[in-house]
Write a structure and sequence with these properties.
The protein is of the alpha+beta class. It folds into three domains: 56 residues, Roll (Structural Genomics Hypothetical 15.5 Kd Protein In mrcA-pckA Intergenic Region, Chain A), CATH 3.10.290; 113 residues, Pseudouridine synthase I, catalytic domain, N-terminal subdomain (Alpha-Beta Plaits, 2-Layer Sandwich), CATH 3.30.70; 79 residues, 2-Layer Sandwich (Alpha-Beta Plaits), CATH 3.30.70.1560. Helices cover 20% and strands 29% of the residues. The protein is built from six helices and 18 strands. The strands form four sheets. Strands 7, 8, 9, 10, 13, 14, 15, 16, 17 and 18 form a ten-stranded mixed sheet that branches. The longest helix is centred in the C-terminal third of the chain and has 10 residues. 29% of the residues are buried.
Length: 265
């Protein structure tokens, strides 16, 4: 992993701040390097030798990376805390709180696959819209959507923030009163699947994410988590076209992986 980098990049990799939020912290004088306040954007630092502090607290890049797959249950928030006292993912991942960040989110009523890591490079690459990592959802809707509705979901739906990219959509199961459809998308807009379904007149009754890129939910149960192994992280890296530079394969910094499932609570 390269040691010399711009200060705002290091902050973004070492914390849960975005690159823009890191720049704002620098501009506000909240960052020091070797005891001196730095407000100049683009300042180069050595992540191995320079002492960087954010609001007086030392920060640094992790020496070991961890990659987790978690089955988020319904009615659980993907946030550090909730003022209303609702349950968050950290109820199940208490060991990892303040050590990992989630790759994107799932809304309160949705369930399924959530990835978490302390690898800022991987996290930034997975969440950047230009990489268009495919995510697959299984959605339960009331009734049976006609062919033209399925085609509309496939070709693109007009939302308030623009038309969606083409998607892969297929009916996977029909019941007397409901239908399960599978939707593959390469975007990450806010509550996108729910808004797409609402826009075509078939609101989602249940929604589960079953895969992110090559990583699948598999046979995990709600509330369970597992480590990703090197093979899976390598698959993610290839899906990102090498944007993570392969640094996770260094055996000196790659955490445990692939040792089966663990129940959070």
């Amino acid at each position: 992993m390269p040691q010399r980098m711009r200060l705002q990049k290091m902050i973004a990799l070492a914390t849960d701040l975005s690159r823009r939020a890191a720049e704002e912290a620098i501009a506000k004088g909240e960052v020091t390097v070797n005891g001196k306040t730095v407000t100049v954007m683009g300042t180069q630092v050595d992540s191995a030798t320079d002492k960087v502090c954010l609001k007086g607290k030392p920060i640094g890049l992790p020496h070991r990376f961890h990659y987790l797959a978690f089955y988020k249950p319904r009615r659980v928030l993907v946030t550090k805390s909730d003022p209303e006292g609702r349950r968050t993912v950290w109820y199940y991942l208490e060991t990892w709180k303040d050590r990992l960040n989630s790759v994107g989110r799932l809304d309160y009523e949705s369930e399924g696959l959530l990835l978490l890591t302390n690898d800022g490079t991987m996290l930034n690459a997975l969440t950047h819209p230009r990489h268009e990592i495919e995510k697959v959802y299984v959605v339960k809707v009331k009734g049976e959507p006609p062919k033209e509705v399925v085609e509309k979901l496939t070709n693109g739906v007009e939302l308030e923030d623009g038309i969606t990219l083409p998607a892969k959509v297929k009916v996977v199961r029909k019941a007397e009163a409901n239908t399960w459809i599978e939707i593959h998308i390469r975007e990450g807009r806010y509550r996108q699947i729910r808004r797409m379904c609402e826009a075509v007149g078939f609101p989602a009754l249940k929604l589960k994410r079953v895969s992110i890129g090559p990583i699948r939910l598999g046979q995990m149960n709600a509330g369970e988590w597992r480590f990703l192994g090197q093979k899976e992280v390598g698959q993610l890296d290839r899906a990102l076209k090498g944007k993570t530079h392969g640094h996770q394969f260094n055996k000196t910094n790659f955490g445990r992986g692939g040792e089966g499932r663990r129940q959070g609570r």
